[in-house]
Amino acid sequence: MAGKLTVVDVGAMKSRGEKITMLTAYDAGFAGLIESAGIDMLLVGDSLGMVVLGYDSTVPVTMDEMIHHAKAVRRGASRTLIVGDMPFMSYQVSRPEAVRNAGRFMKEAGCDAVKLEGGLEVCDTVSAIVKAGVPVMGHIGLTPQTAGQLGGYKVQGRELDSARNLLGMARGLQDAGAFALVLECIPASLAELISRELTIPTIGIGAGAGCDGQVLVTHDLLGMFEKFVPSFVKSYVNLAPRIKDAVLAYKHEVREGSYPDDSHSFKMSLPIEDILS
Ligand code: KIV
């Protein structure tokens, strides 16, 4: 596809049965690498808080932190559809505040859309943001910002009532104007049913192969975040030990004096003694 994918193109991919790929990015370097691999969408996730900023959860992440990182991602990936994740309390207090904060992702960071967590309680907010001209991606199932209310980081929708609730939320968000919906940590068969029932694409994370697309936290895919690895994550490479080995080798060579050697040093163009004469 020539040019940047739009939210309309993402919907068309579902209609054509083409799987949609999405990964998180938090800085220009990774964003550029991911873009060069042709991933369809980048999410500047509030997982930033845990994998980059060292918080224990996503709750402390602020709008200013998200904007700072979203700007960097845009600088690194000018040709990819970028979704900015609205952090906790940036859209709950009032609708005008939610619209203003969603607008910041577009105006200040150059994002193409925003994502926010929640079910029927956020539908009016989603609708207000969409009416203001900002495409919105919904996010239901395990919603990390309110994981405490859900009883922790647990699979959602295993029982009849909660499965029906999730289907109702999905329909509500679609009716509110969401262009796509993240389904996190729900049984594969339920995610497949929701995906079939909706006209907008579903993007799964821990929700099986029946979703219209998949998203992963890039640090998980690369094996770079060791504190907590959910069971649905597939690490395609295990970088954390390789990074530690490289750092240890550097430390060792600096201490023993073998780095930098001649091939990693610059040469003078005149005899060094001339400086003192
Ligand atoms: O913040 C994030 O990275 C996310 C994904 C897990 C969907 O919301």
Describe the model.
Helices cover 39% and strands 13% of the residues. Strands 1-2-3-4-5-6-7-8 form an eight-stranded parallel barrel, surrounded by seven helices. The protein folds into two domains: 7-239, TIM Barrel; 241-275, no CATH class. It has helices at residues 7-15, 28-36, 48-51, 63-76, 95-107, 123-131, 160-176, 188-197, 218-221, 239-256; strands spanning 20-24, 41-44, 81-85, 113-115, 136-141, 180-184, 202-205, 213-216. It is an alpha/beta fold. 3-methyl-2-oxobutanoic acid binds at residues 24, 43, 45-47, 85, 182, 205, 215, 217.
CATH homology group of the largest domain = Phosphoenolpyruvate-binding domains
Uncertain stretches of 5 or more adjacent residues: none
Task: List the quaternary state of the chains.
Answer: single chain
CATH class of the largest domain: Alpha Beta
**Helix content class:** 25-40%
Task: Return the structural class.
Answer: alpha/beta
Distance between the termini: 65 Å
| CA radius of gyration | 22 Å
Number of domains: 2
Widest β-sheet, arrangement of strands: 1-2-3-4-5-6-7-8
Mean pLDDT: 97
Could you tell me the CATH topology label of the largest domain.
Answer: TIM Barrel
Bound ligands, named by name, code or SMILES? 3-methyl-2-oxobutanoic acid
Coarse morphology = elongated
Q: Name the CATH architecture of the largest domain.
A: Alpha-Beta Barrel
Largest sheet: 8 strands, parallel, barrel
What percentage of the residues does DSSP assign to strands (E)? 5-15%
| Count of runs of 4 or more consecutive helical residues | 10
Sequence of secondary-structure elements: HEHEHHEHEHEHEHEEHH
Strand element count: 8
